[in-house]
Amino acid sequence: MTLSSAAQTSDSDARSQPDASLTPLKVFKCLADDTRLTLMQLLSQGGELCVCELIWVLEQRELDVQSTGASLAAISQPKVSRHLAQLRECGLLSSERRGQWVYYRLPVDRPQWLENILSTACQAQQVEVSRWSTWLDGMPNRPERCC
């Protein structure tokens, strides 16, 4: 492929191929933040989730941690949006706007090594991830999923 033909590749073609720039170093740097790791674990377990669902779980996690006397940085919608944007820029998330909400999911073409990392992270925090799923199931006014 010549440089000129590579430049002519459309955005949709580039999105359909695995992100060659996704490296373990890039992934670990991006997942080094507790909130971003939690978001990735939620999406790894929950498939596609609305931003409101992600914020709900993070808020519940914050309340849960505070009830133990520990401290966790307060989470706000803008802060969650910044974390989600960082994960998207890193190539770890894809998103789709539907009406007023944005739905996030892991990229379909993610490499197996990334899947292994996320699976291992979820297994290592099995109790927490299970608790997050329970909170999500009890979320009031949770968005309905289309067929």
UniProtKB/TrEMBL annotation:
Pfam families linked: HTH_5
Keyword field: Arsenical resistance, DNA-binding, Transcription, Transcription regulation
SUPFAM superfamilies noted in UniProt: Winged helix' DNA-binding domain
GO molecular function, one term: DNA-binding transcription factor activity
GO biological process: response to arsenic-containing substance
Keyword Methyltransferase part of the UniProt annotation: no
Domain called HTH arsR-type: residue spans: 16-125
Domain of life: Bacteria
Annotated InterPro entries: ArsR-like_HTH, HTH_ArsR_DNA-bd_dom, HTH_MetalResp_TranReg, WH-like_DNA-bd_sf, WH_DNA-bd_sf
Stretches of the chain forming a coiled coil according to its record: none
The name this protein goes by in its record: ArsR family transcriptional regulator
